[in-house]
Design goal:
Blueprint (H helix, E strand, L loop, with lengths): L1 H20 L9 H19 L9 E6 L2 E8 L2 H12 L6 E8 L1
Parallel strand pairs: 2-3
Antiparallel strand pairs: 1-2
């Protein structure tokens, strides 16, 4: 009986450690958030690629906790505005930070 209690407590401690280890902080994503952000990044890249007026190879996309950051060098302010607009329409995007610059 005593051995079973120790095993149960050990398993509970391991489960708690795993859950806390996967939790997010302000500077680190949890496992679920990382996967969600990867999906958002992929969707934004696809949306930018499918926008005929944009050169997708010039625009980099990163996502952290639903916030998309666009960076790179583009030809015009119109391209910047369009990329921000396209990214903002993607489902799951909380906000878009623009770090793009004109060539």
């Amino acid at each position: 009986m005593k051995k079973t209690k120790h095993i149960g407590l050990s398993l509970a401690a391991i489960a708690l450690t795993v859950m806390v280890g996967c939790a997010s902080t302000t500077k680190k994503e949890g496992t679920g958030e990382y996967i969600d952000d990867s999906v958002i990044t992929t969707k934004v890249k696809a949306a930018v690629f499918n926008e005929p007026t944009l050169k997708s190879s010039e625009i980099n996309v990163e996502t952290f906790k639903g916030i998309v950051q666009l960076s790179g060098f583009v030809n015009s302010q119109t391209d910047i505005n369009k990329a921000v607009e396209v990214a903002g329409r993607v489902v799951g995007v909380a906000s878009v930070k623009n770090s793009m610059h004109l060539k």
